[in-house]
Specification:
The protein has 282 residues and is an alpha/beta fold. It has helices at residues 7-19, 35-47, 65-70, 75-83, 96-100, 119-122, 126-141, 153-165, 195-200, 203-215, 220-232, and strands at residues 2-4, 24-29, 50-55, 89-92, 145-149, 171-175, 237-246, 262-270, 273-280. The chain has a six-stranded parallel β-sheet, sandwiched between helices. The chain has a three-stranded antiparallel β-sheet with strand order 7-8-9, with helices on one face. The structure holds adenosine monophosphate.
């Protein structure tokens, strides 16, 4: 399996695939690969002749320097895992300089308000960083399809908007959230959880499931209060936000309306580790 660190090398491969009329699937990741990533990659393998997996901890999307420094990096293990999956995978694991040149900065995007909701409120300019790195990657890889997890549902919606804004021809494919048996959504950050935090973290998804159950009969006000109370006296988990929002614009709601699709979104701190999750409500 080829692992490229240089932009020029991946460009050469991509040009050869295009010449052979091969379809290219792309799965952007920050590495420390887990089964959630693998599910995306397997789907990409099924639907494309070649699959590029990027492994890049993108500095411009971190607003917290501690989080950036402590983000798990396991390139050798990731490469081993990928090489066991398919011969058609190419890994792109560049340095920041290779992606950004000398100026590591992000574009100011107008994602029509999507960027100001939820994650955007708590992680200033995070989505500018995501949009910028994906613009670079899409230009390099020129994929037919790119795969993103619903685990980062807001990101998925923003990537769809990015492709519109940049007039790119890539098709964005959303993939379901992959969970531990306990219900905890898989995340590279889970590697940093201690045993106590691992034991309590399934409460996040258990809460979302209960919200889904009650959404039909209880008011949004009642549900919001109930979720807050779930975390109020919890010494391990601190609720950052919980919102019920419209899928279309991600704006949180006070009251439900008919024929509108809603999702519940949550962000919780386990110590310093930030965990996010979401669930479709109707
Ligand atoms: P990351 O490496 O965390 O940036 O994630 C790379 C891609 O994998 C993103 O599109 C994520 O939404 C997706 N992803 C991460 N965790 C999961 C999961 N548990 N289930 C499905 N997709 C996931």
């Amino acid at each position: 399996m080829r692992v490229h660190k240089k932009r020029l090398d991946i460009l050469t491969d991509v040009a050869a695939f295009k010449k052979q009329n091969k379809t290219i699937g792309f799965v952007p990741t920050m590495g420390a690969l887990h089964k959630g990533h693998i599910a995306l990659i397997e789907r990409a393998i099924k639907e494309n002749q070649k699959v590029v997996v990027s492994i890049f901890v993108n500095p411009t999307q971190f607003n917290n320097s501690n989080d950036l420094v402590n983000y798990p990096r396991t390139l050798n293990e990731d490469v081993k895992l990928l090489s066991s999956l398919s011969d058609e995978i190419i890994v792109f694991a560049p340095t920041p300089k290779e992606v950004y040149g000398d100026q590591i900065s992000s574009i100011n995007y107008d994602f029509k308000g999507l960027e100001h909701e939820m994650e955007g409120k708590f992680r200033p300019r995070h989505f500018d960083g995501v949009g910028t790195v994906l613009k670079h990657f899409f230009n390099i890889v020129t994929p037919n399809k790119a795969y993103f997890g619903e685990k980062d549902f807001q990101q998925l919606q923003i990537v769809k908007k990015l492709v519109e804004i940049e007039k790119m021809s890539v098709q964005i494919v959303g993939c379901p959230i992959y969970r531990e048996e306990s219900g905890l959504a898989l995340s590279s950050r889970n590697k940093r959880l201690n045993q106590r935090q691992l034991d309590i973290s399934p409460l996040i998804y258990a809460t979302l499931k209960q919200v889904k159950k009650e959404f039909g009969t209880k008011s949004v006000y009642h549900i919001n209060n109930w979720v807050s109370s779930q975390f109020e006296n919890n010494s391990e988990l601190k609720l950052e936000y919980f919102e019920i929002a419209k899928v279309s614009d991600l704006k949180s709601i006070k009251r439900k309306r008919k024929n509108i699709k809603y999702r519940a979104f949550i962000a919780v701190f386990a110590g310093e580790i930030r965990l996010i999750d979401n669930i479709a409500l109707n």
